[in-house]
Specification:
By secondary structure, the chain is an alpha/beta fold. Helix content is about 35%, strand content about 20%. The chain has 2 domains: about 35 residues, no CATH class; about 230 residues, Rossmann fold. An 8-stranded mixed β-sheet has the order 1-2-4-3-5-6-7-8, sandwiched between helices. Helix 7 links the parallel strand 5 and strand 6.
Length: about 290
């Protein structure tokens, strides 16, 4: 091991598929382990897929290039009226272009905090909001986080993300140019914000996220960079209609499907991580933001 979790080629695709069901809350941990055990060697495969967040850190929170802190701000119409997020500032006095980093379906875990630090080292003021803050914050493990997030009023949770984007865009250190990226649930929420914010959003990078309602696509004004995994049938099935709608309005977008990858390939805390695809996709993400938020 070199400090990063590698994708395990020895894991059966059936176990990856079960893990995807488990990750998205369609089965609990016990059912996941029981069904995985029906595949030869499946229990060991299943246990290997559990996240190891010690491996997620690529940028230390004490890195001299950045300054990280937790901030609270108003969120009218959200789950509690108040939100908390992890704000990471690059070195210097600003103003900085800003990037909102939206977590998966389990709250603000260490992986997402690291992604915010990565964005800051490239010169962006980054905010990673914690959608679970109104119910006590990310609880320290993904099982409880997933359960908490599923119980929230989903419309209010999306409002909390919209308010986070507005807070960041109007921050004293902000240049006024806003980009959004997100992963899994956060990818779908990135698409939601592209629809909802219209011309107030300057760039969006959804990672393997649900497509927005087709009728709402004409509201999208931000250039999109769509990042998809090859082995992600449920999400990928949404994209032909989404792309058709984008083409009909001549929306600027690019789409990349990364060969041999699973849903979640950017998350370096689990063996779904695919290092080459994760690095290439992130390089493209940063280039997209630099181009559109300059």
């Amino acid at each position: 091991m070199d400090g990063h979790v590698r994708q395990h080629d020895w894991i059966d695709q059936r176990v990856f598929d079960l893990y995807d069901e488990y990750c998205h809350g369609r089965m609990d941990r016990r059912a996941f382990l029981q069904q995985a055990a029906l595949v030869a060697g499946g229990l060991a495969m299943a246990q290997a897929l559990m996240p190891r967040y010690a491996n997620a850190q690529t940028i230390s929170f004490t890195d001299e290039r950045i300054k990280a802190q937790y901030v609270t701000y108003d969120s009218p119409g959200g789950s509690s009226g108040t939100m908390r997020g992890y704000l990471v500032q690059p070195k210097g006095n600003g103003p900085f272009p800003v990037v909102l980093v939206i977590h998966e379906n389990r709250g603000l875990n260490p992986y997402i905090e690291d992604v915010a630090r990565r964005a800051a080292t490239d010169g962006f003021l980054a905010l990673a909001p914690d959608g679970l803050f109104p119910v006590g914050g990310y609880p320290g493990n993904d099982d409880d986080g997933r359960e908490l997030q599923a119980k929230l009023d989903q419309a209010k949770l999306r409002t909390d993300m919209l308010n986070s984007a507005k807070y960041l865009k109007s921050h004293a250190l902000s240049s006024g140019k806003l980009g959004v990226t997100g992963f899994c649930w956060g990818g779908g929420t990135t698409n939601f914000l592209a629809v909802t914010m219209g011309a107030d959003l300057q760039a969006a990078v959804p990672y393997y996220g649900a497509a927005p309602p087709i009728a709402a696509v004409p509201q999208i004004k931000a250039p999109l960079l769509i990042q998809l995994a090859e082995n992600d049938e449920r999400i990928n099935a949404m994209y032909p209609d989404f792309e058709k709608a984008l083409k009909e309005i001549n929306a600027p977008y690019e789409k990349y499907v990364y060969p041999g990858t699973q849903h979640g390939f950017h998350n370096n805390s689990t063996p779904r991580y695919q290092e080459a695809a994760a690095k290439l996709s992130w390089e493209r993400t940063i280039a997209h933001f630099k181009k559109n938020l300059a």
